[in-house]
Give the backbone structure.
Amino acid sequence: MADKPLLHVEDLVLYFRTAHGDVKAVDHVDFSLDYNKAVVILGESGCGKSSLSKAILRLLPRNVQAYSGRVFLEGKDVMALDEEEFRLKVRWIGMSMVPQAAMNALNPVIRVGEQVAEPALIHLGVKREEAYQLVQKMFQLVGVPADFISRYPFELSGGMRQRVAIAMALVTSPNLIILDEPTSALDVLTQANIFNVLKRIKQELGTSFILITHDIATSSELADEVAVMYAGQMVELNAAKDFFREPLHPYSQKLMASVPRLKVEKEPDFIVGRPPSLVDLPSGCRFAERCPFRFDRCKEDPPMMEKNGHKVRCWLYA
Amino acid sequence: MNTVKNSLKDISRYPSAIAGVIIIFLLVLLSIYAVISIPYDKAITMWRGGEEFWKANPKFAPPAWSNLFTSKKLPESFHVDTADGTMSKVVTSTGDDTSNVTISYSFNFEADDYPQDLIIYFTTTFEQKQPFASVSLFTPTGQEIRVADTGVAQQQTLRFSQESRMVNRYSNVPVMTGMFSDPKDPPHAPLKGTYKLVITGTTFEKDSTFDAEFVFLGQVYGLAGTDMSRRDLMIPLLWGAPVALGFGLLASLGTLILTMIIAAIGAWYGGWVDSLIQRITEINLVLPFLPILIMVGTFFSRSIWIIMGTAVLLNIFTGQIKSYRAIFMQVRESMYIEAARAYGASDLRIIFRYLVPRMIPLLLPGLVSAVPSFVFLEATLAVLGLGDPVLPTWGKVIDDAYTNGALYKGYYYWILEPAVLLMITGLGFSMLGFALDRIFNPKLREM
């Protein structure tokens, strides 16, 4: 168990076909995640974070152009499984997901208790009463009152719906949960609450998280590792404590500088320009155009480099 | 439970919906009454029974209540029988073997028109010697009309209008006109008052019995009238209700549910499945619906079930499948469907538990509104001569009326009765359907 990571992603590729050309949403991504760890994936909108999560869980849209690479879950190559096997053995058994805009991820015509019980009914083959007991346990864990079981999603507040979505991800007790922006569209207090719930789950159940977010400040509470994505690539993979003190990649530095600080009298910084189109990527370093440290070598494509045991995709560290 | 209560509350806000519900409720009651009071087998026997079965009924008789609306009152039909005691019989022994049977029956005749006929059905038993009967009718003025003196076979029918003595007596007018009018008062008008029928029978054997049934064939009959084979129209009118409701509900339910499921499957799987469904729909859209049904009815079978099946099949792949598909395509992309995919719900589970339930609010009004079109379809086919040959239905009555020239001859009741029932049925379902449409699709509510 110790020698093999919980999740190991190797050379993962997911391209979409559109009228304008192929969108390189996930472009040769590698990373690993250990048991009971949380990795935060940061990045601007449209840099492929959600696509990465979908690629890991093989939730592909209809216009896939290319989908390749290897995903090892608990040492097992899940990419080799066929669709039906993947559905039965990986989804919600190996890993589950709290989808983006989880508030809308509940079926409006099914009661929430029933909805949360669904994965258990599908995967665990338990009886309805057992499934409901599980649901009750999960509701307690995420802080949803037990009598909400027989309510419909529209009768719940946004924060409660978010918790229900998390309970749904937990109900089959997988080792890995992918959270795709679990706190967007929630107020700050509720966000903090949700993160407390996640922290508790991590402590009590030993679950690992892949947390996709824009919210650097809040996510720092949960993160063990930080991965930064830019234009479909992973540009930095760092331990959380090092990353928040001293990010390596110029993009990460800019990202960190854009976070307002409480004790420092300093205007939050911003990054000039916009990320390149994923259809028509520039050659060489993809961040070069916006990078303050740009130099000649940036015309070449930078490989992933090691620096103090962390990984970064920048010629500055060559 | 709450939602049901709320829906009922919503419905009660629309008077038309209440009217529709009441009509449907009454139709259901009528159907239940029909099925209970006339069991299926009995209904079929009665409906397919010939003249012999319905001998006590006049032909082409409007319902009795039509007299309420006309100044010229038509005579009502009745029949009495010595066998069941409705007509009295006195037997007096006049010798060892012979006896006299006196049957008399008085009836009031107050109508302004003549009856169709008077008939006596004799039922006798004897070994060798036939009983003898003489039949007289006493008019209100006390005049005796000797109708016939005849030997009676075991089963014998005496029709007053065809009795040679009568035909000769009233040579220049129909027998009934002559019999029931004052001869001193030409032109003939019906003579009102109490008539008395007297049958004097003589039997010549010890165990010989003598019974008679007297049938007065008026010009109006019962609650619904009769048709060309003297059948009581009450039977098809009553039995038409369960047939129409059953046909309409089953066909519309079958059509809509299958349409919805097929549309959902197409929208979910996409690709060639979807293309196939869409191409079948497009081909079916240009095929004429009624001619295909007529072909099936002509060459294959006219059974109501076969016709219903064909109608449902042809109705699945219509424009409806396209609009359902459009809605499913939209629902398909919603987050909760993706979530369901993510937690590993199978395709069928997603279709039946996630896609289809979203359509129920749209389905309900459509379901109710589609019922009348199928009820009318059944009637249409019957009028075209493709009705089920066994079942008594409203369409069948209209067909009979049409082929017997009911409108040309002025038998309006014959067409109007089933037509009004059909219209009421259509109206009831439509009114409820429109109200449901407004409740479930709030965009249609007026501002």
Notes: DSSP finds nine helices and twelve strands in chain A. Chain A has one domain: 7-94+174-317.
